[in-house]
Amino acid sequence: MGMEQKFYNDAKQGWFWYREPAPEPEEETELPATRPLPTLTDYSTEQLWDMHPDDFQALLMEFQKKAVQKPTEQNVLEYLTMQDMARRKAAVYANVASYVLQKNAGLDMGRDYPVTAPGVIARVKMQKEEIAATIQTAAEDHALLYFYSPDCPYCTEQQQILRFFTDHYGWQVKSIDVGENPGVAARFNITITPTLLLIGKGREEYIPVASGVVALDELERRLYRSIRLLNGQITPQGYSVYDFQKGGGLDPESILLKP
To answer: Which region holds residue 51: left if phi is over 0, alpha if psi is between -120 and 50, else beta?
Structure first.
């Protein structure tokens, strides 16, 4: 008998009989595995001392999380014990590093950048002398373009600083009103006043020295570096290196010149 004929002859079920589908078997929900918690009894002092730094750091964080999650006296004690181990390992490194620096003078930055008062005085004196000599020598064939706006209060302050600068070094400073000379301002891409540009005699290249008000000592420092960069005496990689620092630890590329 076909399925259709069987359906019509099934009077018990009738035309509108509906059978609930069999329930699907419930999936068993797996409970998350219990996170193993570290304990100091699993490690000897020697194991912790010789452990790779990455592994030690990870283990230290596990002890920290354990102590924070369950701050019992024992858990906190174990974490602080691990912290003490980390401190001791760091102290050992610091002690050895101090000895190695003392033994290898070329690695000690104290020679190039002293921090003691007499050393700082000597370093600052050499910097100022080098800056002043470079700026004074460059006055013959360099000049500053000073872009300003009459209604700019910052320009008023910068003009006073420039007066001190020109009186001291005898530099030529060409003042340019951006409102009256929009073409010149556009040529040098001037969008902020005051702006100072360094130019050299017979050169098309120029270097922006400052945008906004800069103090006299900062102007001198920037101009010193810009002069040397414009003249090819330094590269951008050695932009902040003074001549008396060349070849030392503050000269980053000097390591490439060593045999």
So the answer is: beta
Q: What pLDDT digit, counting tens, does each position of 66-117 carry?
A: 999 999 999 999 999 999 999 999 999 999 999 998 999 888 888 888 889 9
pLDDT in tens, 132-170: 999 999 999 999 999 999 999 999 999 999 999 999 999
Alpha-carbon dihedral of residues 185, 188, 194, 200, nearest 10 degrees?
A: -120
Dihedral sign (CA 134, 231, 188, 170): positive
Class of 117-244 in CATH? alpha beta
Q: What is residue 1's predicted lDDT score, i.e. its pLDDT?
A: 53
Give the domain ranges of the chain.
Answer: 40-101, 117-244
Work out the average pLDDT over 29-40.
Answer: 74
Separation of alpha carbons 161 and 77, rounded Å: 62
Give pTM, 2 decimals.
0.70
230 phi-psi bin (left φ>0, alpha ψ -120 to 50, beta other): alpha
Kindly report, residue by residue over 42-53, the tens digit of the pLDDT.
999 999 999 999
